[in-house]
From TrEMBL:
<dbReference type="GO" id="GO:0043709">
    <property type="term" value="P:cell adhesion involved in single-species biofilm formation"/>
</dbReference>
<keyword id="KW-0597">Phosphoprotein</keyword>
<feature type="modified residue" description="4-aspartylphosphate">
    <location>
        <position position="77"/>
    </location>
</feature>
<feature type="domain" description="Response regulatory">
    <location>
        <begin position="27"/>
        <end position="144"/>
    </location>
</feature>
<dbReference type="GO" id="GO:1902201">
    <property type="term" value="P:negative regulation of bacterial-type flagellum-dependent cell motility"/>
</dbReference>
<protein>
    <recommendedName>
        <fullName>diguanylate cyclase</fullName>
        <ecNumber>2.7.7.65</ecNumber>
    </recommendedName>
</protein>
<dbReference type="GO" id="GO:0005886">
    <property type="term" value="C:plasma membrane"/>
</dbReference>
<feature type="domain" description="GGDEF">
    <location>
        <begin position="187"/>
        <end position="318"/>
    </location>
</feature>
<dbReference type="GO" id="GO:0052621">
    <property type="term" value="F:diguanylate cyclase activity"/>
</dbReference>
<dbReference type="GO" id="GO:0000160">
    <property type="term" value="P:phosphorelay signal transduction system"/>
</dbReference>
Length: 318
C-alpha cells in the first residue's frame, strides 16, 4: 500500500517493513508534563507500532526506568516541574549506557543552546516542538538504528560468538582493575576456572556440531545455575571462567560443587544421543589485604584445575 501510494522505492518499503516488525517489540518511555504533548507523541509512535509508556514528570520517569525492563528509547521533555529534562537524562545515563538505551530531548523553548546542552548531558538527539510527523520519525528511527549498530558492535566485541556468554576481553575489562581494589578492601571474591572433561572425545565420536551444541548447552546451564549475580565467560575451547564476587573460598566451593554434581547427573540430549559429561573446576579465593591481580588469580585457579584433572577429574579443587 505504502509502496503504491507514495511511490517509494522497493528497497525503502522492505526496510520499512523490517523496521515496523522491530518496533513492535520496542518500548519507548515518553516523559512530558503536558498531557496533550504526551498524547501527540504517543500517537506518532503508535503509528509506527512502538510500545509506548508515559510518565507525567521526571520522578515518575525514573521510577518507570527502574520498574520496566527493556526500555530502548526515552523521549524527555525539557520543561517539567521537579526533575526537569536535563536532570532526568543525567540520572537515566547513570543507569543506562548508550549501548542500552537511546535518549531524545524535546522542548518548545526557543533557547538555541538547548540542543548542545541536551547532547552533552547524554541525549542522542534533540527535537524542537512543534515538529512535523516526518521529522519526528526520521529522528526516532535514525537514533534507534544507531543504537542497534552500537549494540551489535558491542556484542561482537564482548560476547563469545558460539555460546553468547562474555568473552575473555570483556572479563579482563571488567575485572582487571576491580581485583586489586577488592583485594585492598579485603572484600570477598573468588574465581573458578572450569574445563569439560574429555571434551575432545565428543568431537571425535560425534562430530563438531555435537561438540558445539555441548559447549552452548554447558554455557547456558552454567549461567542458569549461577544466576544473574555472577559473571560467566568463555576463555576459549571448552574452558570457562566465573567471577564470584562476594563469595569467599568456602562458599565459592559449595556453589561450584552444586553445579558440578548437577552437571554429572543430567545428560546432554542431542536428538537420539544422550551424553554424560563432567567438568573439572579450579577455584581460588582472593586473600585479605592481598596484592593479587586478575592474572595471578587466574594462574592459581589454573593450577587448582590441573590438580582436579590429575586427581581424577569430575571434581573441584580450592
Ligand atoms: P581434558 O579432560 O584433559 O580436559 O581433555 P579434553 O579432551 O577435554 O581436552 P583437550 O584440550 O585435549 O581438548 C579440547 C578440545 O576442544 C580440542 C578442540 O578441538 C575442541 N574445541 C575447542 N574449541 C572448540 C569449539 O569451538 N567447538 C568444538 N566443537 N570443539 C572445540
Ligand atoms: Mg513541559
Ligand atoms: Mg577439557
Ligand atoms: Mg581444555
Amino acid at each position: 500500500y505504502v509502496y503504491k501510494e507514495n511511490r517509494y522505492s522497493y528497497e525503502y518499503v522492505v526496510k520499512l517493513i523490517a523496521t515496523l516488525a522491530r518496533n513492535r517489540h520496542t518500548k519507548v518511555l515518553v516523559a512530558d508534563d503536558s498531557a496533550l504533548s504526551r498524547k501527540f507523541v504517543r500517537n506518532l509512535l503508535e503509528l509506527h507500532l512502538f510500545e509506548v509508556i508515559e510518565a507525567e514528570n521526571g520522578a515518575r520517569a525514573l521510577e518507570l526506568l527502574d520498574a520496566v525492563s527493556g526500555i530502548r528509547l526515552l523521549i524527555a521533555d525539557y520543561n517539567m516541574p521537579g526533575i526537569d529534562g536535563f536532570e532526568l537524562i543525567l540520572r537515566a545515563r547513570e543507569k543506562f549506557s548508550r549501548e542500552e538505551m537511546a535518549i531524545i530531548g524535546l522542548s518548545n523553548d526557543t533557547d538555541e543552546t538547548l540542543t548542545a546542552r541536551f547532547i552533552k548531558n547524554g541525549a542522542n538527539d534533540f527535537l524542537q516542538k512543534p515538529f512535523v510527523h516526518e521529522e519526528f520519525h526520521c529522528r526516532v528511527s535514525n537514533t534507534l538504528e544507531s543504537l542497534e549498530m552500537v549494540r551489535q558492535l558491542w556484542e561482537q566485541a564482548n560476547l563469545d560468538y558460539l555460546t553468547s556468554v562474555y568473552n575473555r576481553r570483556f572479563f579482563f575489562n571488567r575485572f582487571s582493575q576491580q581485583v586489586p581494589v577488592l583485594g585492598q578492601q579485603g572484600a570477598s571474591f573468588s574465581l573458578a576456572v572450569l574445563d569439560i572433561d574429555f571434551f575432545k572425545d565428543v568431537n571425535d565420536k560425534h562430530g563438531h556440531d555435537v561438540g558445539d551444541f555441548v559447549l552452548t548447552e554447558f554455557a547456558s546451564r552454567l549461567k542458569q545455575s549461577l544466576g544473574q549475580h555472577f559473571t560467566v565467560a568463555r576463555f576459549g575451547g571448552e574452558e570457562f571462567v566465573v567471577a564470584l564476587k562476594g563469595l569467599d573460598g568456602k562458599r565459592a566451593l559449595a556453589l561450584m560443587e552444586g553445579f558440578r554434581e548437577r552437571l554429572a547427573m543430567e545428560p546432554f540430549v542431542f536428538g537420539e544421543l544422550e551424553l554424560r559429561l563432567t567438568a573439572s573446576i579450579g577455584i581460588v579465593a582472593l586473600g585479605h589485604d592481598s596484592e593479587e591481580t586478575l592474572d595471578s588469580l587466574i594462574k592459581q585457579a589454573d593450577v587448582a584445575l590441573y590438580q582436579a584433572k590429575t586427581n581424577g577429574r569430575n571434581r573441584c579443587v580450592l
